[in-house]
Amino acid sequence: MVALNLIQLFDLSLRGRAEVEALEWQGRVYTFGDLDRRSDRMAQALAARGLVAGERIAVYLANCVEYIDLYLAALKLGAIFVPVNILYRERELAHIVNDSRPLLFISAEELPGLVAEAEACEAVRPVVTVDGDDGAAIIYTSGTTGVAKGAVLTHNNFAANAVNLITAWQMVAADRLLLALPLFHVHGLGNGLHCWLMAGFRVKLLERFEAGRAEEEFFSFKPTVFFGVPTMYVRLMQCAASIGESVRLFVCGSAPLPAQLLEEFREKFGSTILERYGMTETLMNISNPYVGERRAGSVGLPLPGVSVKVVDGEVFVKGPNVFARYWGREEATRLAFVDGWFRTGDIGSIAADGYVTLAGRKSDLIIASGFNIYPREIEEFLLEHPEVAEVAVAGQPDAVKGEVPVAYVVARGICDVAELERKCRAALASFKVPKEFVLVEALPRNALGKVQKHLLPKRSA
Ligand code: AMP
């Protein structure tokens, strides 16, 4: 078997561009060679603690340069990296640890000792052979409907994804990526980190996205590319229009980008956000084109190598990007695939010209007296009104209809709920009109800004 390890692809930068400045982190600049040596030392330190190929290492850290050292070190040892959401607390951590059974668990308390051990090691790269089908990472799904499952992503999955994105979005060594996404999620890790290390451009890594500092970051770093989630784009709307001057490409994903926001952003910054669609289990599937129409409300066209079809309203995908299996869950893996196609759980449709539009998670579909209601349609409509800053529509139990839509609205200024309802009545079929409008201070969102609908206040039937 011919072995492909992601490190070989990263060597295009780690070794091929060793002298080039690669990373800005907290005022320091690291070359690719620095990162190569740091991760060699870290690999030696992890090996001394017993980490070998196939064993898991869980990492529970906020973004930092050591995060990158640990990830590269794990790959160099052929170990399986288990990134853990930094917002998780005891119960969630216990689940991931019990499920993935890592040999090492690295948290902020653990890190200084480990770093000291690494600094005492020689920068010698371990010699291991890893097959492309071996797991590089186990990434846990957000688990909003049931237990969080660990998706085993292989070296080949990550390679296919990054090679695709580098081509599709024309990422080149001259680019500068402002990376404010968490590295524990596929958006930051699979898109940000992997594209960077393969294409060899420059990254400024932030611990997190801070709306109040965003303008300054854009002005000082002058990124050419920005990867964000919709909530970040909502916040960027407050920045000066000139932040967009250095940027050739704004990419958005991980949650639906409201069509209204794409239009407002284009108007203000003169740049059309490129929306794409992916998920933990599949990395990136579908993307609006770099050249050609970036259609508002649509996630675009299948990426090269990815097959997409819609079966009974649900999007199915197949391709080299699709994960191998759920860790330790044969039954869940079996149920997730139909004849080799992965059932995404997302509702979607394909236009005659191939553009795919998503309507939300299948589990969020509302069925009121037998009528299907797609929350996204109502959310998009409500967002067209300036008094609505953010909105989530969710199904709530109803004694008569089984379920009804309820709108949770974050108001911009004064929001007359009765007036909103009138507007809905005038524009939407009656069964789609939210039964209730609940004004809330903020929507419950996860670390990627995705609304956690199961955490919205319940209404009694
Ligand atoms: P995660 O595994 O946390 O990355 O979540 C993946 C889910 O996020 C997908 O199954 C979709 O429901 C949603 N998602 C990701 N990108 C988009 C997008 N561009 N538009 C709508 N939903 C998206």
Could you please describe the fold and organization of this structure?
- The chain is α/β, with parallel strands linked by helices and 461 residues long.
- It folds into 2 domains: 6-357, ANL, N-terminal domain (Rossmann fold, 3-Layer(aba) Sandwich), CATH 3.40.50.12780; 365-455, GMP Synthetase, Chain A, domain 3 (2-Layer Sandwich), CATH 3.30.300.30.
- The protein is 31% helix and 27% strand.
- The protein contains 13 helices and 25 strands.
- It has helices at residues 6-14, 32-48, 65-77, 90-100, 111-119, 155-168, 186-199, 211-221, 230-236, 259-269, 330-336, 375-383, 417-427; strands at 21-25, 28-31, 56-60, 80-83, 104-107, 135-140, 150-154, 176-179, 202-205, 225-228, 249-252, 274-279, 283-287, 301-302, 307-311, 314-318, 325-326, 337-338, 341-350, 356-361, 366-368, 371-373, 388-398, 402-411, 436-439.
- The strands form 6 sheets. A 9-stranded mixed sheet has the order 2-1-9-8-10-11-12-13-14, sandwiched between helices. Strands 15, 16, 18, 19 and 20 form a 5-stranded antiparallel sheet that branches.
- A hairpin with a 3-residue loop joins strand 23 and strand 24.
- Helix 2 packs across helix 3 (65-77).
- The model has no long low-confidence stretch (mean pLDDT 95).
- Adenosine monophosphate (AMP) binds next to strand 12, strand 19 and strand 20.
List keywords for this structure.
single chain; 461 residues; alpha/beta; GMP Synthetase, Chain A, domain 3; 2 domains; 9-stranded mixed beta sheet; globular; binds adenosine monophosphate
